[in-house]
Structures are given as structure tokens and as C-alpha cells.
Amino acid sequence: MKKMIYGLFFGDSITYGEYDGVFGGWVDILKRYALQQFHEDSNELILFNLGIGGKTTEGLLKRMPYELAARNSAEGNIIFIGYGANDLAIKDGIPMVNPVQFRNNMIEAIHHAKQYANDIYLVSILPVSEKISGVQSVTGKLRTNEEILVYNQILKDIAVENTLHYIDFYTAFLRDKEILLSGDGVHPNEKGYGVMAETAIPIIEQYLKD
Predict the structure, then answer these.
(1) Helix, strand or coil for residue 121?
(2) Which residues have CB under 8 Å from 169's CB, separation 6+?
(3) Which of 56, 66, 93, 95 is most open to solvent, judged by the fewest CB atoms within 10 Å of its CB?
(4) CB within 8 Å of 201: residues ≥ 6 apart
(5) How many CB atoms lie within 10 A of CB 152?
(6) Residue closest to 80 by CA, chosen among 16, 161, 3
């Protein structure tokens, strides 16, 4: 029995696909892939890019219940949550969202997601370029690769505790990050977004088949 499944991607500018003028980011690559793969025998997979640049988990909690209520399929949903790159950014000497609060916010977000989906994916935070690790950006934010490890560990722990999936983009980027990140050292370039899509395609492929 063919189903219509919705995929909801919550996140920041890296979910939205900022800095990729070629493919529009990893979620848009997945969206096109799902459309290309759709035929009469497959499930229909409708993907929603709900990424908003600059946001933290604080912003996610404000909008998530409404977004979930507005976009869900009675036949099944998959939810991706990609936050942390802004939460861990130091602004005016303090993290925008400290590790304890980040953990609490993510757990609350998962509670919302579980009301609509059995399959929830936590998306790891990408490493940043060595040239900007510990350097304040023009937006006044400072990120370090040390803190990224701390916040990614929180995501991994939450995934294990709640039997969720963890998408390890961090490891996929680590070795070649200097050629996969754009000039700002934070966002992927089109090559980087391509690597993310390649990592995630096998995940969405399983929902196209019954």
C-alpha cells in the first residue's frame, strides 16, 4: 500500500542551505532526489525545508508545535532536527544557549516531535574551519571546535537515551573540512552540501520503498 510520508527538516542556515547558490543546500538536493525517485510503485515523500538562519533551540521551541501541527501526514512523518551551531556560539562572552539549556531544549523538541513521528533524526553540528575557530566573526559570534565536540556529544547521548537516529555529518566533514566549508568557515560550500546529501540519501531512500 503506497503511502504519502512527510519529512520535516528543522534547523538553522545550514538546514536552509545558505551559501549554496548551485544546489540550494542538502535538504533541497534530497527534495529533488525524492521527486525524481517517485513513481507509481513507490511511496510519495514530501520534504519541507524548515530551516531559518541564525536561530537557536530557543527559537525552535517557539515555532515547533505550530509547524508540526500545520505540516504532517496521517500516513507517517519523519523529523530531522539540526541545531547547535548557533546555540554554542559565544556572544558577549557567553554561549547563546549553554550546554545544559541546549540539552533541555532538545529534549523538549523531541517530546513535540514524538507526537507526530516515530522516526526522529538528530543532525550533528559541523566542524568549523581552523582559521575561524576561536575568532570572533563579523556578527559578533565566536565558535570553537572544542565546543562543537561538547554539543555533539550532548546530541549523541540524547539519541542513545531516546533511541533516535544520529546523522554524523561532523565525521563526514572532519578530514576535508577546509575544502568543504565556504569562505566564512562555518557554512558548507556546494561541495560540502553535496557530501551531506550523499550521507543522507540512504536515509530517505528507505522511506520511498514500502
Answers:
(1) strand
(2) 123, 124, 126, 195, 196, 199
(3) 93
(4) 30, 33
(5) 22
(6) 16
Chunked mean pLDDT (size 10), the chain, 210 residues: 93 96 95 87 92 97 98 96 98 96 98 97 98 91 97 98 98 97 96 98 90
CA distances from 145 to 89, 96, 149, 168, 182 (A): 11, 16, 6, 15, 16
Q: Are 195 and 180 in contact (CB under 8 A)?
A: yes
At 41 the three-state DSSP class reads coil
How is residue 43 annotated by DSSP? Answer: P
CB-side neighbour CA atoms (13 Å) of 142 = 10
Type of residue at 37: Q
Closest by CA position to 67, among listed 56, 79, 76, 75: 79
